[in-house]
TrEMBL record:
UniProt-listed Gene3D superfamilies: 3.30.390.30, FAD/NAD(P)-binding domain
Domain Pyridine nucleotide-disulphide oxidoreductase dimerisation: residue ranges: 361-467
Domain FAD/NAD(P)-binding as annotated: residue spans: 9-321
Record's protein name: NAD(P)/FAD-dependent oxidoreductase
Organism: Streptomyces carpinensis
């Protein structure tokens, strides 16, 4: 390994995914010299193996499902999806796994890109070992931001390595559609990929250790998604663990805790995420390699005055949009501190504190039906000690839902704090509800009084009229 001279920067960002890019954008806007280190593709997990390719796979699935609900159109879309065309469009959406456009964007904001593996080498120091074996030392005046994200966490199962299981990466970048697919897990990745591959032609079996799908959302969300997957032909087994796996003559065999043998062509494990911090030099600054990085609301790592952690790696909210939100706040806080400016008070709307992480995190699950939620579920609100009331309505009561076609099934819930008369959480399940969630996010983040929501008049006939039905149900 060859070593070169050290180079000084105001800020060094580890990881050039959407989170790292946003940190760099804000620190450059503050006039700080910024280096970004990336060991794979600029654009990160979201652009190439998560958000973008998964939604490219799912969009034709959802569009066909919507069309099949409409008389006059349904007969035109009864055939199978063209799987090869769907995969080809997915490839276009990921720029064929080339990051030239993202690199040009970094160049455009004036950030320096270092390709290679970046590691902390003590306080305010980063070493980068490039593909050519040359090691460069970057010294840092103000901040290092760790934005390395997470990777799939695989269980410790006999035979797993030999099986070569799919994780979310393989599922979103696959070059073929397997005839049979086992999906292990019941969360977002599991339900979205089960939805996609069942529609693309796989026979899907979902194995869930718990009682149902989407356990972190309101129970009815997982129930409605499970019903739709089952009707589409997927098999869902709840309360089922996988004890061992093997590949026999090219066929995957999974053995469950009940002793059942399930055969498949591929097996996808969607069983959680682990932080990518095992080899970034945390031990050189007194921290445990492989650990999550706890932070304060300015995204500064607890106990440090120069180390920041944004996105999945801090374990606050494992969502791209939430990581980008954190990155913008961290970049602005770094810029203010570098200039010796006081941080604005966060109570609760200041620009230097990620307060939404605590009470207004939105999410959309792109299944059919879609499931979207923001804030606390009923159970979470009660566990947090709030006095709350859940208000539920069916979308069948909403005129705009009928325009989506026959057989629209969906439900909405708002969780109302009965003392403060604000919303603690909102959940929508049904076709098209992903586009509703930002209105709920504004209501929850802005702590809009329920009485004031009466004066936010929904347009007729749209599915946003569900807000009126919820308020009417609340009033009784």
């Amino acid at each position: 390994m060859t070593e070169t001279e050290s180079i000084a920067y105001d800020v060094v960002v580890l990881g050039a995914g959407p989170v790292g890019e946003n940190v760099a954008d804000r620190t450059r806007a503050a006039g700080l010299s910024t280096a970004v280190v990336e060991s794979e593709l600029v654009g990160g997990e979201c652009s190439y193996w998560a958000c973008m390719p998964s939604k490219a796979l799912l969009r034709p699935v959802i569009a066909r499902a919507d069309a099949r609900r409409l008389p006059g159109l349904s007969q035109a879309v009864q055939g199978p999806l063209d799987a090869a065309a769907v995969l080809a469009r997915r490839d276009e959406y990921t720029s064929h796994w080339h990051d030239d456009g993202q690199v040009r964007w970094l160049d455009g904001i004036g950030a320096d890109l270092y390709r290679g593996h970046g590691r902390l080498a003590g306080p305010r120091t980063v070493t980068v070992t490039g593909p050519d074996g040359v090691s460069r030392t970057l010294t840092v005046r103000h901040a290092v931001a760790v934005c390395t994200g997470t990777g799939a966490r695989l269980p410790d199962l006999p035979g797993l390595a030999e099986v070569r299981p799919w994780t979310s990466r393989e599922a979103t970048s696959a070059e073929h559609v397997p005839g049979r697919l086992i999906v292990v897990g019941g969360g977002v990745v599991a339900t979205e990929m089960a939805t996609a591959y069942q529609a693309l032609g796989s026979q899907v079996t979902v194995l869930v250790r718990g009682k149902g799908l989407l356990a972190r959302m309101e129970p009815f969300a997982g129930e409605l998604v499970a019903e739709a997957l089952t009707e589409a032909g997927a098999e869902i087994r709840t309360g089922t663990s996988v004890e061992s796996v093997a590949r026999e003559n090219g066929t995957v065999v999974a053995v469950t805790g009940a002793g059942d043998r399930i055969e498949s062509d591929e097996i996808l494990f969607a069983t959680g995420r682990a932080p990518r911090t095992d080899d970034i030099g945390l031990e050189t600054v007194g921290m445990e390699p492989g650990s999550w990085l706890p932070v304060d609301d300015t995204l500064r790592v607890e106990g440090s005055d120069w180390l920041y952690a944004c996105g999945d790696v801090n374990h606050r909210a494992l969502l791209t949009h939430q990581g980008k939100y954190q990155a913008r706040i961290a970049g602005d806080a770094i810029g203010a501190r570098a200039k010796g400016e006081p941080l604005q008070e966060p109570a609760p709307w200041g620009p230097h504190a990620a307060t939404a992480d605590h009470h207004a995190v939105p999410q959309v699950v792109f299944t059919d039906p879609e499931a979207s939620a923001v804030g606390l579920s009923l159970a979470e609100a009660e566990q947090a000690g709030h006095r709350v009331r859940a208000v539920d309505v069916e979308f069948s009561s909403v005129a705009g839902a009928g325009l989506y076609g026959e057989g629209y099934r969906g439900r909405a819930r708002m969780v109302v704090d009965v003392d403060e008369r604000i919303l603690r959480g909102v959940t929508f399940v049904g076709p098209g509800v992903g586009e509703l969630i930002h209105s709920a996010t504004v209501a929850v983040a802005g702590q809009v009084p329920v009485d004031r929501l009466w004066h936010a008049v929904p347009s007729y006939p749209t599915i946003s009229e569900v807000w009126l039905r919820l308020l009417e149900a609340y009033r009784g």
